[in-house]
Backbone:
C-alpha cells in the first residue's frame, strides 16, 4: 500500500481556516489537496507554506488551455514544490504531452494526473457538448489518451477504478474522490465508496474532504480511516 494514500481536500475560503485544520494533522499521515477556491483566495503563498510544513500537496487546478499556456502553468506549479498537479484530458493529446514534458524527469518532479470526464457529467451533458458514447467509454478513452501522452494517472470515480486498472495497468495511478467512511454523511456526493472498498477496487489515492474536515476531531477521523485501510490490506495478504 502507498504510504499515505489519504489526500485531505482543503475546501476552505481562506488561509486561516485551512491552516487551523492543518495544524491538527500530521504530514506523516496524510497529503493535502488545494483546489480552485482556496488557491484563488490564498494563492501560491499558502501552497508554499504547506510544502514547507512538510506536506505533499496536490494542486488541483485542472488546467485546460492551449498547450503552451498549460505547459507554463505546470512549470510554475512545479516550482512551488507540490507533489501532484492535474490538467483536463479534454484539452487533447498535444496539451497533455507538452504539460508532461514541462515537468522534466527529475526524481522529485510532481506527478501529473488528468481529469477525464467530470463526474458531474452524465450522458445528457455529454450530448450537449457533442460527446458520443457512455460516460464509461469516454472515461476510458480519455484515460488512455492521458497514458499514451506520458501522464502518471487520472482522477476518477472509485466506481471506475477496477476497469481502469484492468485496462491501463497497475502503475497508472488512480486518484479517487467521492469517498465516504461507512458512518459518515454522503452530502452532495452520489456514488460513494468506503475507503477500504475504493482501495480494493484499485484506487491508489483517496481524496477525502468533509468526513475529515467537518469532523469534531479531524485527526481521530483520519486515524480511523487509516486503521480501516490497514485492516483491509492485512485482509488482502491472507
Ligand atoms: O468533501 P468531499 O469528500 O466530498 O470532497 C471531495 C473533494 O474532491 C472536493 O474537493 C471536490 O471538489 C473533489 N472532487 C470531487 N469529485 C470529482 C473531482 C473532484 O468530489 N469528480
Residues:
Amino acid at each position: 500500500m502507498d504510504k499515505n494514500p489519504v489526500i485531505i481536500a482543503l475546501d476552505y475560503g481562506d488561509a486561516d481556516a485551512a491552516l487551523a485544520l492543518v495544524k491538527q494533522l500530521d504530514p506523516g499521515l496524510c497529503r493535502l489537496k488545494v483546489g480552485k477556491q482556496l488557491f484563488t483566495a490564498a494563492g501560491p503563498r499558502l501552497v508554499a507554506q504547506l510544502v514547507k510544513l512538510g506536506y505533499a500537496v496536490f494542486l488541483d487546478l485542472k488546467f485546460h488551455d492551449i498547450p503552451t499556456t498549460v505547459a507554463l502553468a505546470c512549470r510554475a506549479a512545479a516550482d512551488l514544490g507540490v507533489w501532484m498537479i492535474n490538467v483536463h484530458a479534454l484539452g487533447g493529446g498535444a496539451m497533455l504531452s507538452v504539460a508532461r514534458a514541462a515537468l522534466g524527469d527529475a526524481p522529485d518532479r510532481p506527478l501529473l494526473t488528468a481529469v477525464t470526464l467530470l463526474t458531474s457529467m452524465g450522458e445528457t451533458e455529454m450530448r450537449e457538448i457533442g460527446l458520443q458514447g457512455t460516460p464509461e467509454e469516454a472515461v476510458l478513452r480519455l484515460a488512455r489518451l492521458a497514458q499514451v501522452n506520458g501522464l502518471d494517472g487520472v482522477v476518477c470515480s472509485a466506481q471506475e477504478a477496477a476497469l481502469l486498472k484492468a485496462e491501463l495497468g497497475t502503475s497508472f495511478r488512480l486518484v479517487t474522490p467521492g469517498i465516504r467512511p461507512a458512518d459518515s454523511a454522503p452530502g452532495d456526493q452520489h456514488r460513494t465508496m468506503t475507503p477500504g472498498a475504493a482501495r480494493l477496487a484499485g484506487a491508489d489515492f483517496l481524496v477525502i474532504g468533509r468526513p475529515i474536515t467537518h469532523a469534531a476531531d479531524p485527526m481521530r477521523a483520519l486515524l480511523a480511516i487509516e486503521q480501516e485501510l490497514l485492516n483491509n490490506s492485512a485482509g488482502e495478504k491472507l
User: Anything to note?
Assistant: Residues 6-237 form a domain with the TIM Barrel fold (CATH 3.20.20.70). The chain has one domain: 6-237.
